[in-house]
Specification:
44% helix; Argininosuccinate synthetase, chain A, domain 2; Rossmann fold; 5-stranded parallel sheet; alpha/beta; 404 residues; 14 strands; 20% strand; 13 helices; 5-stranded antiparallel sheet; single chain
Length: 404
């Protein structure tokens, strides 16, 4: 029986050439698997046919949009996940979903190998291979771009010699990855970190410097899940898509950062994530209203660690699963509405309301009707400061002198 390889297929030059390359190098049949994660661009049916035309024996195109939104973007939102406090895990979230479908396809079609088109410099090689190892430990991984010397020049020659139906002459100055959660742009002139991004590289966002009318939006959450926009029921996917459009039109969600890659190098990345940034902003504010102080403090630490694990390709790790359970529990009372103004590249919170609110007006007010008993504060302050006071007195006694 001929061996089979399941290939993570994007429709681009490298993975299209990889179909024939793998077949020639291994003698195996190639099954191409592509996923719609809301990236837009080419028609998925065109991509499916291209894989067949390039020599795949089977071409699978899966609509993963709702699954991506519900099972990957939503947990990231509930964690307020921002790698290095800025990056909303655009590519890092889609990779474990693609891995899940690759391994499922491999088991269904009896494949012994799974292939990807990642280079050796990026994070995605780790995300794919660690994920495949977790879900399909018996599968062998092929990485032709990284391990077989399949440079772009060689790929172009390979495609031209075999008449593959792909564009091999026009090269974008950027490397781009995108999905419904955001868009990542790198390489080209951006590799000089002194160079400013230009407007031509943006697609999800409009120039925030252009004067336009502000857009006011109210996002409703139920137990940490976005369930309405301006009072209209929405799915998670619909919430992301609408805010991509509305926040993107106001230039919200542009990021230009030098990022610490897992492989140990620093990389300049430009991101657009209007829906993600708007939703995380709203969610953080609702948590500020509904989550108890110590839980909120600890959750910020958990969210940061969660983001690091996902960035580092450990979506399927035991620690990630355990943190998921903590985050899910923390969301039980995160229900209410947040009003924001989208304008000038920012999503600014202007209103909050929740039946689960821990904000008590009568305790917070400084006006008549205040129910906070200030007489209790004196003893509280004395007890709170006692450990520091005792430690300072001890240090002065042992030092044998008075404070300087």
């Amino acid at each position: 029986m001929t061996e089979r390889v399941v290939l993570a297929y994007s429709g681009g030059l490298d993975t299209s050439v990889a179909i024939g390359w793998i077949a020639e190098e291994t003698g195996a049949e190639v099954i191409a698997v592509a996923g719609d994660v809301g990236q837009g661009g080419e028609d998925m049916d065109v991509i499916r046919q291209r894989a067949l035309d390039c020599g795949a024996v089977e071409s699978i195109v899966a609509d993963m949009r709702d699954e991506f939104a519900d099972e990957f973007c939503l947990p990231a939102l509930q964690a307020n996940a921002l790698y290095m406090d800025r990056y909303p895990l655009v590519s890092a979230l889609s990779r474990p979903l693609i891995v899940k479908h690759l391994v499922t396809a491999a088991k269904y079609h009896g494949a012994t190998m799974v292939a990807h088109g990642c280079t050796g410099k990026g994070n995605d090689q780790v995300r794919f291979e660690v994920g495949i190892g977790a879900l399909g430990p018996d599968l062998t991984v092929l990485a032709p771009v990284r391990d077989s010397g399949m440079t772009r020049d060689k790929a172009i020659v390979f495609a031209e010699e075999r008449g593959l139906p792909i564009q091999t002459t026009k090269k974008s100055p950027y490397s781009i990855d995108q999905n419904v959660w955001g868009r990542a742009v790198e390489t080209g002139f951006l590799e000089d970190i002194w160079n400013s991004p230009i407007e031509d590289l943006y697609e999800y966002t409009s120039d925030p410097a252009v004067v336009r009318d502000a857009d006011e939006v109210t996002v409703g959450f139920t137990a940490g899940v976005p369930t309405s926009i301006d009072g209209r029921p929405v799915s998670v996917l619909q919430a992301i898509e609408e805010l991509n459009t509305r926040a993107g039109a106001q230039g919200v969600g542009r990021l230009d950062m030098v990022e610490d890659r897992l492989v140990g190098i620093k990389s300049r990345e430009v991101y657009e994530a209007p829906g993600a940034i708007a939703l995380i902003t709203a969610h953080q504010e609702l948590e500020a209203v509904t989550v108890e102080r110590d839980l909120a403090r600890f959750k910020r630490t958990v969210g940061q660690r969660w983001a690091e694990l996902v960035y580092d390709g450990l979506w399927f790790s035991p620690l990630k699963r355990s943190l998921d359970a903590f985050i899910a529990e923390s969301q039980q009372q995160v229900t209410g509405e947040i009003r924001m103004t989208l304008h000038g590249g920012r999503a600014t919170v202007t209103g909050r309301r929740s039946d689960a609110s821990l904000y008590d007006f009568n305790l917070a007010t400084y006006d008549t009707g205040d129910t906070f008993d200030q007489r209790l504060a004196k003893g509280f302050v004395q007890l709170w400061g006692m450990p520091s006071k005792l430690a300072t007195a001890r240090d002065q006694r042992l030092a044998g002198g008075a404070p300087q």
